[in-house]
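Progress report, Aim 2. The chain analyzed during this reporting quarter is listed below.
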Amino acid sequence: MINIKENERLSIMNHSCAHLLAQAVKHLYPNALFWVGPVIEEGFYYDIDLGDKTLTEDDLPAIEKEMKKCSKDNKRIVRHEISKNEALREFSNDPYKVDLISRMDEEDTVISCYSQGDFTDLCRGPHVESTKELKYFKLLKVSGAYWKGDSKNKMLQRIYGVCFENQEDLDNRLKEIEEAKQRDHRKIGKELNLFMSHDLVGKGMPLWLPNGAIIRKQLENYIYEKEQKLGYQHVYTPCVGTVDLYKTSGHWAHYKENMFPSMKVDDEEFVLRPMNCPHHMLVYANKLHSYRDLPIRIGEFATDFRYEASGAVKGLERVRCMCQNDAHLFVRPDQIGDEFKKVVKLILDVYQDFGIKNYTFRLSLRDPEDKEKYFDDDDMWNEAEEKLRNVLNEFGCEYHEAIGEAAFYGPKLDVEVKPAVGPEVTLSTCQLDFLLPRKFELSYIDNEGNRQVPVVLHRAIFGTFDRFTAFIIEETKGAFPLWLSPVQLNIIPVNNTYHLEYSEEILNILKDRGYRVELDNREEKLGYKMRESVMKKIPYSLVIGQKEVDNRTVSYRKYGCEETITLTINEFVELIDKELTDRK
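Predicted structure tokens for the chain:
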């Protein structure tokens, strides 16, 4: 999908089309007031105050029609510059524009405007030469948006659209948008009963339904087994901590705005935890460690809470309550390279298992020209950055270096994955930390009997189970591999009178092997039950008729295939066992 914001020609066209939208809206709703209309990756939008009028999708065709009329008028789009005082007079009837102008710094600021026929708008530009150049556009949706993104302000109406140079490109984008709708994990999650939300629980607080809980549990089992083999020790820690805990870690000073408000209980003040590292620091500090004990790898499937703006929350992808696949590795400085290598290998192994191929590594490093804002240890920084670079080169990973984007306490690796739809998302991360162990006065005894401070690697392979599940739903369109599928097998007797008893026998055999299997014994026609099995995207549908009863066999149809295959029960069990073992 083309990133319109990064394409110079399309960016200019889409910003011009935002003005065309505003002109059309002004014709249809003369009292309309306008905030801003920027270009975004997917096209453009404009935030508009229409007073008591609430737009719906049904209103968009009429606005489009008026936009086409304005386009055919072929009005030149003309730039002109005015002073701040002149701008305040010209836009005096629009408080949103007055707010923009008033916040400009100098009294003699020159402000640029663009006019097209009877419509003038504030804008830096540039724009196309004439409205006639804007022929191939589409309004996509309308939603609410708080003025300045602040929930305390008035709710405006945001109209989204997109504009291209020709009809073919526009049609292709509309197909991509339709594909994105079909893949949207919120839509699929509702259809397959994976998760839900409810206003009584709160925005960004998803409820995992039984089917979704099975998927999440399978993901937990999968990564737990891998981490166990690598020597991780899993713990459970509380979902809250005292404010003093986060003052010690430094999060209270630097991250407070992203945390939920504190709660006073008796003589203590608690906060819902936004991350797990402070708890894990204390787990490490629980006893004295020798240099021989390191590395110590502490993992946890931990529920965290972060305050996200209500307009930003989205299904499982962006939530306020999340479960992280988190771990903290406590290492000696000489072990940084080896442990980082193991983390990268784990990431690559997981991505191979899930068929994730479209990703890049982002290595955030210190700015050598501006060292003041970073933890002060040149040797540590230089050695650590070189080790991280060497590991990525050794694996042949495609990566780019982001100079100056390291945290103040250490370099960081992010894995940016291109999903089936939408912009890149960060799934896996690994962060070196020289500072937090010092804040918690962590130490180990070296081979000469002296206390030394360990280095910590913060890492998350899935990121959060929530976001990773959203990613997998959209990648598979809800057609999960056998090992992840909530229901793996569906047994459908052709006729309950003659075939139900044998179907129940097969059900018990398969259940005893631990398969997630259902028996559809409703008095419905075979075709109806098969279609419903397909709609539920169940990997295997087993049809049991008289032939299967007589020969003690099963006939199955795999999801997405038209062919029906007949096997003995033992042969079928071997087939399923192999597919589950492969976990592909």
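Residues 479 and 537 are 5 Å apart (CA to CA). The radius of gyration is 29 Å. These observations will guide the mutagenesis work planned for the next reporting period.
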